[in-house]
Description:
- The complex is a heterodimer.
- Chain A has helices at residues 8-50, 52-63, 66-79, 86-111, 115-123, 128-158, 170-181, 184-213.
- Chain A is mainly alpha-helical.
- Chain A has a domain at 22-168: MetI-like fold (Orthogonal Bundle).
- In chain A, helix 2 packs across helix 4 (86-111) and helix 6 runs antiparallel to helix 8.
- The longest helix of chain A has 43 residues, at 8-50.
- By secondary structure, chain B is an alpha/beta fold.
- Chain B has a single domain (2-89, 156-239), classed as P-loop containing nucleotide triphosphate hydrolases (Rossmann fold, 3-Layer(aba) Sandwich), CATH 3.40.50.
- Chain B has helices at residues 40-47, 72-76, 94-104, 110-123, 139-151, 169-184, 196-202, 220-225, 230-239; strands at 2-11, 14-24, 29-34, 55-60, 63-64, 79-82, 157-161, 188-192, 205-210, 213-218.
- In chain B, the strands form 2 sheets. Chain B has a 6-stranded mixed β-sheet, with helices on both faces. A 4-stranded antiparallel β-sheet of chain B has the order 2-1-4-5, covered by helices on one side.
- In chain B, strand 7 (157-161), helix 6 (169-184) and strand 8 (188-192) form a beta-alpha-beta unit.
- Classes of the chains: A mainly alpha, B alpha/beta.
Amino acid sequence: MFETALTLNDLWFLAKGAGMTLAVTAVSVAAGTAMGVIFGVIRAQFGPFWSAPLTFVLDIFRSVPLLIQLVLANAFQAIAKFGWEPFTTSCVVLSLYTAAYCTEIVRGGIDAVPVTTRRAARSLGLTWAQDMRYIVAPLATRVSLPAWIGLTLGVMKDSALVLWLGLTELLKSSQILVTRLQEPLFILLICGAIYFLISFPIARLGGYLERRWSPND
Amino acid sequence: MIEIENLRKSFGALQVLKGINLTVANGEVVTIIGGSGSGKSTLLTCINGLEAIDGGSIKIDGVEVHAKATDINKLRQNVGIVFQQWNAFPHLTVLEDVMLAPRKVLGVAKHQAEEIATKHLVHVGLGDKIGVYPSRLSGGQQQRMAIARALAMQPKYMLFDEVTSALDPQLVGEVLDTLKMLATEGMTMICVTHEMAFAREVSNRVAFFHQGVVAEIGSPDQIFGSPQNPETQKFLSGVR
């Protein structure tokens, strides 16, 4: 195990894979969160009845396995002649997938802000938008943060599935090396360590923000 | 002036207000007493436009609160309300909490909002708590902060909805003292309260609510000294 054919070049190859994983994750989490916030506000504001169509669509993205979504979306974009790169298709699917989960996190966060607190804000003359911006957003963010960090870490690992569309991200890079060097355990160990290295700061960031925001609890 | 005419309000099948008539002149302090479920608190939330109404009207300085054309956010700037639960904003310090509405609603500059907020916090006796988060305050202090927050909008009218009901008995006094101070300063106030001694001391008029109507209204001496309505007599003999 300690005599390995793995070279610095191969490590660089893995790092590039990790870069692809990070890029797909960053785009998807950013777009998915933006959509999730909008959908979450709609869900919280209009109640279960009026947001039922939206909830139904999002439920589809939450329940169908991601791999199936990726393959179907890729086939669909080919049939519809969108001409999307695998990267684009991957990001679109992962964004919607993220948005579906994020919507529920945002809705839960908004619902956690006591109605009486919002009433007090409105009674002072704050508009609905001001109430959302200055009272609901900060309080809901605090409540939602741990779940959102969990979602981000989950999406990062789930993004490995985009290798099926031909993207060479971290897991695919490892597979290529395993095939060539025939050292599966060692290479997967390194691959896992890289996943850990990019996840750990995100998890720590969550812990840090939670501590910083709770001097008042 | 606040003019309430034949106000009706239901929650589903339950009719809470069954035709309330009440006029509060500027500078007047009116307290509302009555059993639970008599519609006292509902009336206050209707005056501030937080609840829709089913009939009748509420006019504040001639502007109808529930008319479609009324800018309710603008109207609320003149009508402060303090609730039984003080509803501090937990993510803001005492000063930021009180500054928020003047800054965002009135568009006052930051340093000016700070001045206004500080002035009102000192006024209610919280001058030393300015940079503190509300969780570090007692219930009585949080309630006084809520009063300062409403006052910072420089409203013409103040509505107090059982502001001492959720407090420990030893904290009631400090909040009532704040209300008395406002009354002596000439603030127009409607107070829903269960504190009879307070009602007797500060009110110009006392209204007794019973089952969604004003059963009796008059000077404190009249209501507490020689109530005419048998329901008022029953209620007052019960609370004494």
